[in-house]
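Before going further, learn to read the protein records used in this course. Taken together, the tokens spell out the fold as the letters spell out the chain. A record is reproduced here so that you can trace the correspondence yourselves:

***
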Amino acid sequence: MKANNKKLKSIWTLIILLVIITCTVGFAYKACMSIGQDPVTEIEQVDGAENADSATDSSADSTEANQEGTENADESVADSDQTTEENTETTTDGENTADSESPEAGDELKGDENASEAVDSEASVDEEEKEDKKEEKKSFIQTFFDENKIKLGLDLQGGVNIVYEPQLDEGMSEDEIASSMEAAQALIQTRLDANGYTEAEVSIEGGNRLRVDIPGVDDPQKAINEIGAAGMLYFYDQFVLMEGQEVNTILTGKNIKDARPAQNSETGEYVVSIQLDDEGTKIFDEYTAAHQGENIFIYLDDTLLSYPTLSAHITDGQGQISGNFTLESAKALANNINAGALPFTLKAISAEGVGAKLGADALSTSLLAGMIGFVIILVYMLVMYRLCGLAASIALIFYVGLEILVLTAMNATLTLPGIAGILLSIGMAVDANVIIFARIKEELQAGKSVRLSVDSGFNKAFSSILDGNITTLIAATVLYFFGTGLIRSFATTLIVGIVISMFTALIITKMMLKAFVGMNIKKPTLFAVLKKTGKEA
């Protein structure tokens, strides 16, 4: 009875493992179908949202609506979305003036609405409710694949690679250079995002260079013109509704000596500390004395960074921006502010393009080579190690599917070196299995039972596998932290692959072999090619 229960338990264990592996491979296939596509990012418009682009678009819509109302009957028309973040008034002579007391207010425009506008508004609300219901019905799995996708790198998708070098002053210290380089990195990344290059990556190379990879762009000079100029930081007294609007500039980037993340000693919350130069201190002293309780709007180029409220009279040129900051968000804002006050200019020292066709050919060739190699490995394992090889082959298939899902969850960028890292980690996973199976074969050759041989083989091989993988993991970690661009892509896939390969080799393969033994498959020659048959269990 005990034997039957044990056999049944082993069968169920094997079935559950196969179901999990099948589901993983199916999800990995779904992830592969969306490689290279942009992740879907859905932004919900709420009161007080700090979304500069949304605010600008909404404000522009409001201004156009007011202009039409002035030409027809001096009406103030409410924005159809009813989420405009500024109060806009129409003057009697047909001119529009914007009062941006606080973008957080999210007040609706005041004015008479005719019946047709009310009907349109109700229809819009109904449509939004239907969309919300559809979103609620989305499963966790569908949401995961909508929001997470593997992106293609520059060498696979094609695009532009630009290297910038700062024109540094000789008197700058290493800390000043490092801080300025981070600010320059933030500046270029902000500009790339503003120009729609959401997949572009900016990295610091060698401590004094910036490497910019922009997939999907054909003209290097166009990209240089769009992102290469110095960043301009402005402190305005009102929100900028449209290009060409007259606003009062309070401070500029030249008045900023330093901006850095800090922590309030009393509340413990993260803030952004700003220090002004002598001219800025004097200007800010006069301005804050007369405008306490009002908002000040901080722009980098045309991008709104923040709109803090002036809560005190600042006389010493030392100010703090507080809010619901994390350390990362406080550092990001400080870098953007410093980007508008860079003490050097950036010069493009190299720019080269990678054709999309070349990238596509490289991807298809690499994947074909990988698939051929993977199939050869599976056949070899089955022929040389039989049931052990079958367990290892199934575990390797699970490994590939699991690595694709992990990279998808990371929104990783896939490059040719990244593919090489995946293939290398597959080889390391096979190597771990070979070491284990060699130990099992030795135990079987010595006449031990299959059950004892499997247990002993894994125990004896564990230390060797662990040592080999840890040393490789250390090397990959060093590459990740000190490398840039393609090197980091290789290190990322290698690190993920090493961790997963250890799991599949030491856990999944062992569980499957134990299940085979539990199903009374005890003939030694089914587990290894032996010169002489050992004793059965």
About this structure: The first strand starts at residue 87 and ends at 90. The longest helix spans residues 356-409. Residues 39-119, 533-537 have pLDDT under 50 and may be disordered. Residues 479 and 487 are 7 Å apart (CA to CA).
